[in-house]
Amino acid sequence: MDSAVAAIAEWMPRQRWFGGKGHAPALRLIGAFDLPTAEEDARVRTLLVMDDAAEPPILYQVPVVERAVRQHSPAASDHLIGRLSEGGFLYDGPHDRAYTDALLDLIVGEGRAASAGAVASGRYSGGEEDRGGGAAASARPPLSAPATVLGGEQSNTSIIYRPAESAPVICKVFRQLHHGDNPDVTLQTALAASGSPHVPASVGDVHGEWDDVGQPTGRARGHLAFAQEFLPGVEDAWRVALTAAATDSAFTDEARALGAAVAEVHLSLRELFPREQPSEELVDRITAAWSRRLGIAVAEVPELGAQRAAIEAVYARAQAGAWPELQRIHGDLHLGQVLLVPGRGWVLLDFEGEPLRPMHERCRPDLPARDVAGMLRSFDYVAGSTAIALPERAEAAVAWADAARHAFIDGYVAASGLDLSAYRDLLAAFELDKAVYEAIYEARNRPTWAAIPLHAIMSLLESGPLRASPDASAPDRPEPSTPSMA
Ligand SMILES: Nc1ncnc2c1ncn2[C@@H]1O[C@H](COP(=O)(O)OP(=O)(O)O)[C@@H](O)[C@H]1O
Ligand SMILES: O=P(O)(O)O[C@H]1O[C@H](CO)[C@@H](O[C@H]2O[C@H](CO)[C@@H](O)[C@H](O)[C@H]2O)[C@H](O)[C@H]1O
């Protein structure tokens, strides 16, 4: 085995983006390419490794820098992957300037790298100036710039470049690779090109090709990285909302505006991408995915077994009810994916869809209710995590979240013109399905938060997608809608 692969296998389970929590990876090298670097001591490699121990196997992108001499700065030591048996040291690429510069150069300089089993091509999609100007006009970035890795809990690894002479850029290195275009790149790029203020401008991307015996041509093709305008100094709404809930500050105006922004993005996506009628086959496919996911959740989170029949009853009602036309959507909308940018309003990020869903499903037209449900769940998460951190604020946080959920729906309905009450059962099913997804996600990634979706599932089964507003007189069993949805 390539000694770099052996070192990566040891190191990978400690990385946030490693999807196979609970098992040691069994890595197989699928392909690798080198990027040119000006640093004599460094070799910049990107390895594509398949974890055959995952079910189904997962293909990861692992950029590394091989150096003959050990780096002694504390930053470098933190990002040492391991020693190579043939001599030399292996570093985590996104934390090493040799890699970050090589990646930026690949995109902005539209380079190409090809070697054993893999090819990568950079594409510069132009700053705002190439599209007639927009929210954040910026010049072409240089080929080299100081870079840092975004901290926090991400499924991918994002590198922020801060060139001295031009606007900052954030480049996301996709960790799990899939055959097919990544909606994060295609949806956001199309929205930005259409003039939508609700997404950052695209800067460019890296497209790759690698060996895949599962494809008829023997090759798979997909995106490896996506660079876009970085909106500096703006906290994501998850953090803003947590602070607001903890201090009992109103968030309803923001939530209403967020609902309107999501509706506007949905209206744009309707125009930009093909739509599909909800044929029987399509309805069956989506409802089968709910049931499949519920089966996985019950196997991984056995406490859910007692709710299975009640959840399935909600799914059956939704399946039999009204369905709107399907269209492209965000796919994994939550507060961590949206930024309230001063002077610009709400901006949506990360159109990649749910990382636990197969990519081919994420790339098909879907129901906007999935996004609405995702955001409703996220407000509930604010209440749930506030209750864990500040038990004395638990009740107030639930009222805060209910008010935000109602305001979000009001904003969405007003801007979309859609009568959501006609799709009440569908929204209930999507919210439950999202909570079921979260139950799996938390069990795998953040077990201390597992109670948040489990509690939500109980309460959704009791009261439907929207509890009564805090100031409304609460009926014994609140109707699963609000007046604004009627
Ligand atoms: N264009 C951007 N401008 C400012 N911050 C961003 C931008 N893109 C991403 N971020 C920050 O990075 C975080 C993670 O980005 P995201 O696209 O959700 O990555 P992942 O797919 O790894 O979850 C976001 O929550 C946001 O805080
Ligand atoms: O990393 P991604 O942004 O692609 O999303 C994944 O991770 C999210 C957690 O970081 C997860 O979101 C869940 O936790 C959020 C709070 O951290 C909460 O606001 C969301 O409602 C909840 O679903 C997301 O589901 C997952 O795909």
Automatic annotation (TrEMBL):
Signal peptide range: none
Assembly and binders: Monomer.
Ranges of Low complexity composition bias in the record: 136-147
S-adenosyl-L-methionine as UniProt keyword: no
Broad enzyme group: transferase
Pathway: Glycan biosynthesis; glycogen biosynthesis
Pfam families with a match to the protein in the record: APH, Mak_N_cap
E.C. number(s) listed in UniProt: 2.7.1.175
Domain of life, source organism: Bacteria
GO biological process, alphabetically ordered: glycogen biosynthetic process
Gene3D superfamilies reported in the protein's UniProt record: 3.90.1200.10
Domain Maltokinase N-terminal cap: start-end pairs: 11-96
Family assignment from sequence similarity: Belongs to the aminoglycoside phosphotransferase family.
GO molecular function: ATP binding; kinase activity
Reactions listed under catalytic activity: D-maltose + ATP = alpha-maltose 1-phosphate + ADP + H(+)
SUPFAM superfamilies linked: Protein kinase-like (PK-like)
Keywords: ATP-binding, Carbohydrate metabolism, Glycogen biosynthesis, Glycogen metabolism, Kinase, Nucleotide-binding, Transferase
Residue segments, region Disordered: 118-149, 467-486
InterPro entries reported in the protein's UniProt record: Aminoglycoside_PTrfase (IPR002575), Kinase-like_dom_sf (IPR011009), Mak_N_cap (IPR040999)
Name of this chain's protein: Maltokinase
Residue intervals of the Aminoglycoside phosphotransferase domain: 189-384
